[in-house]
Amino acid sequence: MSEATQAAAQAGIRIGAHVDQVDPITEAQERDAPLVQLFLGDPQSYKGPVVAYAGGAAGLRDAAEAAGVALYVHAPYVINVATTNNRIRIPSRKLLQQHVDAAAEIGAQGLVVHGGHVGKADDPEKGFDNWRKAVEATDLKVPLLIENTAGGDNAMTRHLERIGRVWDAISGAEQADRVGFCLDTCHAHAGGNALESVVTDVLAITGRIDLVHCNDSRDDFDSGADRHANFGAGRIDPDLLAAVVRDAGAPVVCETPGPAEAHVADFAWLRARL
Ligand SMILES: [Zn+2]
Fold it and tell me: What is the distance in A from the centroid of ligand 1 to the CA of 87?
């Protein structure tokens, strides 16, 4: 065991899951999870965020605090702040700010957003610069956690080299210290990044991993497909999956198929290997 691994083991890595947004506190309790991730509204829509919890945003914030549950919000998939298409980039920025605001209202620890992409024929440089502009234009009331993605043409955060370019671009922005990283294991594997070194590789670029999305993958290495699987049911080497979680040392959200019992089984599977 390395020193870092030992420290992570001693500190105890907190493990939770992505859950339904209607009552995330009960969902957390059903899983005995200290943290959960949720959507605020429809993840496929440009309509603004909605707090589905019966007590509203303030009620959810208070209930989470009382229950000792940390909340993370996953931004809608339709957000693409990198694109050169104004009709997507402008509403994406607006939606991003709305979700930051809503995440702050429920007391969330961070907002996870995908890296997005530019068009097939576009110069990726424009996408990196659009990321800088988005960070500069957004009031980051909660940390923004940029997530690596599995596939897509001309993606911003599929490959490490591109992640490095995004980070270079945003590092000069005023709120750069409010931008963190969410490492998704399924996306890294399916995106073609070796899990053996991905934690070290990402840390060399970003200096931080704020959250791990721990997911097995139904597809092969470098397939470009984004299909999550329960632990041990996919194509990722079990020891490698656990090693990423251990070495990242960050809170974990399992975005594996539910229901609660399946998540509890995934947590146990993972804990047994940490
Ligand atoms: Zn993810």
Answer: 25
